Amino acid sequence: SKAALFDAENKVKITFSDVAGLDEAKEEIKEIVDFLKNPSKFTKLGGKIPKGALLVGPPGTGKTLLAKAVAGEAGVPFFSLSGSDFVEMFVGVGAARVRDLFKQAKEKAPCIVFIDEIDAIGRSRGRGQLPGANDERENTLNSLLVEMDGFATDSGVIILAATNRPDVLDSALLRPGRFDRQISIDKPDIVGREAIFKVHLKPIKLDPSVDPKKLSAQTPGFAGAEIANVCNEAALIAARRDKKAVDMQDFQDAIDRVIGGLEKKNKIISPEE
Ligand code: ATP
Q: Subunit notes for this chain (predicted)?
């Protein structure tokens, strides 16, 4: 297919205020915003700015959102690609794509490069599968390592990568000078869920019956992506019912629908890897 080589966003509008909960992660990642905004402040005493940080946590918890918010807060471009795009690529294409990405990133620095699902390229080499089947993935991983080593720490390119499987990553990726920092992004607790509900309730016309505290109590185990989904479903359900505002019953039905969807998904996806 003729998919774009990677995504590039020059003006990112997302900021930390769009990311609810995740207070510790935000605190840690703020450091990277400072590095991007004022690198010389940090390098003048001989320190080296980290090249990358790994965002570790389950799907839908806001890793992409947080990475974008770093770019938004620092006012720098955001380049992104997903590891899973590389899985079925022809020989040489993955490595070339990584090289192109870094070439452009260096030209646009300071900037953020975001690699979603890095485990799809970054699995430890020689692990599992038939011999030969992994060659292209390994080429891609090698070119990523070469690129990471090839730019200076003060080049202004900072790489954020997301994974929910840090345990399968090739240890070469985690060495100092590569992804030497890890930031954990956990599923929200009841307080975090309430904060996420408040963000996603904002654009919705609400009936006074709607109580974010009650909604967060009714959604244990939900990640931010599912909460966003609940809010959107509730608005659609209320519209179908010709209501003037979205009420608590609509939210209850939306929660049931999202739980139903999750159960179906868990049945289809096999528990292995
Ligand atoms: P994946 O690993 O599946 O790519 P992710 O951790 O990168 O997931 P995002 O893509 O950032 O998750 O989240 C999906 C959507 O869920 C976001 O665009 C946002 O609407 C909502 N969301 C997730 N987490 C949060 C949060 N902490 N605050 C506000 N919204 C959130």
A: Homohexamer.
Q: Which tens digit of pLDDT belongs to each residue from 111-155? A: 999 999 998 887 776 655 555 556 777 888 888 888 888 877 678
Q: Which two tokens stand for residue 26?
A: 């935000």
CA 193 to chain CA mean position, Å = 18
pTM for the model: 0.89
Ligand 1 centroid, distance to 225 Cα (angstroms): 5
Report yes or no: 185 and 161 within 8 Å, Cβ to Cβ.
no
Query: What single-letter amino acid sits at 16?
Result: F
Candidates 23, 27, 29, 64: which one to mutate for ligand 1, based on the most atoms within 8 Å of Cβ?
A: 64
User: Relative to the CA of 185, which ligand 1 atom is closest?
Assistant: 6
d(CA 164, CA 208) in angstroms, rounded, equals 38
Q: Is the dihedral of CA 254, 260, 264, 267 positive or negative?
A: positive
Mutational test site, ligand 1, from 55, 61, 231, max ligand atoms within 8 Å of CB: 61
Question: Residue 259's CB: how many other CB atoms inside 10 A?
Answer: 16
Nearest to 139 by CA among 86, 196, 187, 103: 86
